[in-house]
Amino acid sequence: MGPLGRETWAQRLGTFRASPSAFMAGPEGEDLGRDLLSDLRSEKLSEPMKVALLALCLEYPAQLWPDAPAAEAAATSLLDTLVLLPPRPSALRRPLLLAATTALAAGGALSPASGASRRLLPLLLGLASGRDLGRSFGPASEQRPLQATAWECLRELESCRPGLLGGCLGLLRALLGREGPVQPLSLLLALALRNALVIQARAGAGLQGLLTAGDSSMEGGPWNWTLAEEGDVHLQPQAPSWPAAEEGECGLAALELSPEEARELRATVAQLLDASYLLTPVAQAQLLWLLGWALRGLRGQPPVLFKPQLVRLLGTAQLTLLHAMLALKAAFGEALFTAQDEALLLRRLTLAAQHPALPLPTHLFYLHCLLNFPENWPLGPTGEEAAPLLLGSQLCRGLLPSLLHEPMALLARLHLLCLLCMEEEEKEEKGQDQSPRHYLEELLAGLRQRAALDSGPRALATLCFQASYLVAHCLAGQPVVLTPLTQGLAQLYRTRPALAPHFVDLLDRVGPELQEPLRVALRQEVVSRPGREEALRWHLLMLARVADGDAQSATLNFLWAAATHCTDWGLQQALLRVCRALLRAGVREGLVDLLQALARQLEDPDGQDHARLYYILLAHLAGPKLGVALGPSLAAPALASSLVAENQGFAAALMVQEAPAPVRLSVGPRRAEGPVPVLQLQVEVLEPVYSLELRFRVEKQLYAPLRAVHVPCLCPGRPTRPLLLPLQPRRPAPARLAVRALYSTPSGLTCHAHLPPLLVTFADLFLPFPQPPEGAQLDFFEELWDSCLPKGAESRLWCPLGPEGLEALVSRHLEPFVVVAQPSVSYLVAIRLPPDSRLLLRLEAPQADGVPVALRTDDWAVLPLAGDYLRGLSAAG
User: Fold this and answer.
1) Residue range 94-112: average pLDDT?
2) Is 104 helix (H, G, I), strand (E, B) or coil?
3) How many Cβ atoms from other residues are within 10 Å of residue 637's Cβ?
4) What's the Rg (C-alpha) of the chain?
């Protein structure tokens, strides 16, 4: 097939981007990667179209080359295409370098055994360092862009395989002082340095001259695959959120540096910091985080190296640099930032957050920095929210929330106000400024007034409840704040009952400090007001959430009065949901009469059945069982009937549910006695199990149906007697038993579980013949021996012996079936196989490595089973 045209490729690329997975699963998906690599060399396609194809390689490498061999082949083809480009300027060189790097990294093909890796890595380093290999690769006008691209590719490879460039640290240091792109080289050196420090710390070794090794260390290849293998853990190069990431068990404190290595490390960090002003703000922020992360855990490495940068950073207007500076403060604290620095930084953040022309995201960023400010000497336990000590109410006067602010800004300012309320005592003296707590109460009152407007937008009500939740979360331990908040919310419900869904959601999310008093207040508001048509459904919705065993009389009186107004299906279901809540709360007196009246009074059959079901449950089930029956169900399918949909818990309590098996079953020692073979089963449980019934089913119907085994109670850790399972084979053959357990849990549910199948071996079917009279054993055996022919079968085989010899083998496996024993000479063995077969063995005098065995049986189908059994005796021990 020849090269595809531009229109065909444009159509294929459009179809692929619309749904990559569907395209790859279709008929053209298998050939897409091969056609792409082939047409990159075609002269019929223009360079813009080839660039579009390479862009696809960069965006979807995993779909195009899903495994390492495919990625290796793709990278090799891309490198071949790169080499074959003519020496004139071309827009394909940089995309080809990026595509080859992406294919190796994304496909997991980057390794010392990869031919493409051995070609790509020297090429990248040559281009980046400006050696002869790089200068002869493409025209001079492309050298600098290619150099920057090569640095980016190397940084990507170091990110994917941490430690890969550990052997190039000395070379990278030397190149940093030369002419060339500073930003990609600085970021690569910082990343490689950080990865090498982490890997060497985990290995308990020093830097081993990595910072001073130059070109002389590149013999045999510049790539440190040993470090890359040790550093295959994923090390995130991006800056984390505050506080800085923990080093974990293998921290950098374990790294032992010699004085010379410590000096070289400080010199490297200083060299990177001195050139950092040439980088973009985002690159500077990443560089500062990488170096700060590397030095944070090192012993004997003072952070004073960063001090010259603070003079420049404390006055920056770049948010990324400000964030990086705060990350350094979180990492080093008072070792790098003085109290004056901290005060200056707090004042800068506070004043910047008050600027009226700030965009909303920037404003929220400054507020976030204030809320999470890393103090030098924070008070209280780690992780506890608190306002910075130097951030007083006077400094934050311009950051107090107002009803005119945007919702997100208001909530962030409210969060800061709550932290100030936690720190500042209320000022009771007259003439003093209003305290933060009074301001907070007035703000919440204003939010509730706006939310109470019937014609107000829904966003105002949402903002009011968000603010209430934030206050309850931050000031949970201050009743002086929660009490007026509770009263205000109750007044809001009285004014606008349509906000009942918001109240239910708030009750589900807040802690018990607000939840309990608010629940009581809302219940009093509901039951003290007569039901009206438009508000009744909201009252019932709220009462279904707040009803409990308290104030039963008032609640039932409200329900009796509301029942006369519940004329449609929705109101009836809401009323029955309140009855359900009272049932779960243990209310009985008075509820029985109400349910009986509802079963007669409600016009809808669904409501009547619902009320009748609750009445039956209340009359016949005790408290614990009733709680299980009305509890939430694990599965709640969408059903049309509310009776079924709302009683999934009751259905679950009455139905047998499938559950993970809490029972472990195994086959114990054999019992060679009785008229039929019997399996001894050992049973263990992981949790208490009651009324256990084990059901067995024989695959392929080799045996007659087996009876179930019953156990009244099993508890973990208690010894149990073996369970006996009689077998009734229809022919003597091994089988698999499918096992199913049916049991009751302590919570009253009935469950079933499928257990792993049990294997019945050929030896499990062995039974002895009746004991012949004394002195007649030989005649008895010979009579059995002769009776097997002519209808049976006879065979001879060699039975290997273990180091213990014949006597030990017979004693361990065949002793119950021995009829005549002449130790060291011969054994005559008679085995009865149900239903009506026999197996006779003559074990003759043992030899060096085995014993000859003659066997007869009246059932020729037994021969292969007997042969396999005898040959496996020595291996069974």
Assistant:
1) 89
2) helix
3) 8
4) 41
